[in-house]
Amino acid sequence: MQQARETETTPLAGFDISPAWRFEQNVHWPWLTRLRREDPVHFCPESAYGSYWSVTRYDDIVAVESDYRRFSSEGNVIIGDVPPEFDRTRAFATSDPPVHTCERKAVNPAVSPRRLAALENSVRAGIAGVLDGLPRGETFNWVDRVSIELTTQMVARLFDFPYEERRLLPHWCEVLVTTPENAMTADRRAEIEAYRDRILGLWRLRANQPGDDVISALARCPETASMVEDPWHMLGTVTLVAGANEAARGALTGGVVAFHEFPEEWRKLRADPGLVPNAVSEIVRWQSPILHMRRTTTEDVELGGRRIAKGSRVVMWFCSGNRDEEYFEDGNALRIDRPNARRHLGYGFGIHRCLGSHVADMQLRILWEEILKRFRRIELMDEPKRLASNFSANYEEVLVRIPV
Q1: Who contacts 197 (Cβ-Cβ below 8 Å, separation ≥6)?
Q2: CA dihedral in degrees (322, 324, 326, 329; nearest 10)?
Q3: Which residue, 241, 196, 198, 195, is CA-closest to 218?
Q4: pTM, entire model
Q5: What domains can be seen in the chain, in order of their start residue?
């Protein structure tokens, strides 16, 4: 209630959406709603990250994503600037064509529909094994027992990463891309350097013994093989692909939270399992695993009637576009039969649409197919604990119980 009052009484000139605690406490929604209504292209002059523009409506986000020449990804795609000592951790997500096109093409075979089709039986067996191992009638953390386990298994498959070390790679990715409001710490620097050394060792190994994994695909592609000579660039590309899969973690948990808040949708899904594919899209829309992406203007631009100067930080709030009332009727609600659910911005739009979108959708589809075979319901036992991040809509703890 206090947040709602504050949202309505705070002058628009003082609006700053970016503090991570807003997202951790899940109180950012009314702020975004007001911006969509009153100032959809909004300038914030001061924040922990400096000045920035917020783009909150669906159509404006699509316009920015469709114009890479004026809204550039070059250098950085998160609201906070990369510390100078790590500004070389570049990847195709932080590049524009032609570099973006070349590197994305190199990775594509490792996450293609053909590769995923070959992995589907293994993925289904892994998901079934995790679900069958869950306790009945006892409270446990869904994030740790299911979401983290499934995404780390998937990363291990995509990278042919040692299974016993499967939780390291997603952890390192999160350390690199999370945008804390404090400066780079010595511990964070040490972890990133350990990450770099580990990936560099795997690259050298795969260059001589290539497989079907992501690192092998990059190592054997003529246009990207020289990336090994720039380990930070290599690290950025690996992080992008691994992080794209990690985005699924928020949705793997978010579905449980969503069905708790909208139990009638769970009953609808149980009555018609054929709705699972559309329900997956709707869960991604509702959850918005990636909360924002940033672009930098290469020239003076007009957007939504506002004049944005060259060199400005422009933040597209995907989570806001996915709740835009003009595009998604009753957008705050989960509707698993929503006719335009697949038009969500949960994976971005255009040339920078998330490379791991098919991977995430496959995991989510199989998860809910297998849940429907096993459980009548999943009970939420406490308020979810969310990650303190304005970039990743992940959870730290979601306590649930599966009735006996």
Answers
A1: none
A2: 70
A3: 241
A4: 0.89
A5: 2-401 (1.10.630.10)
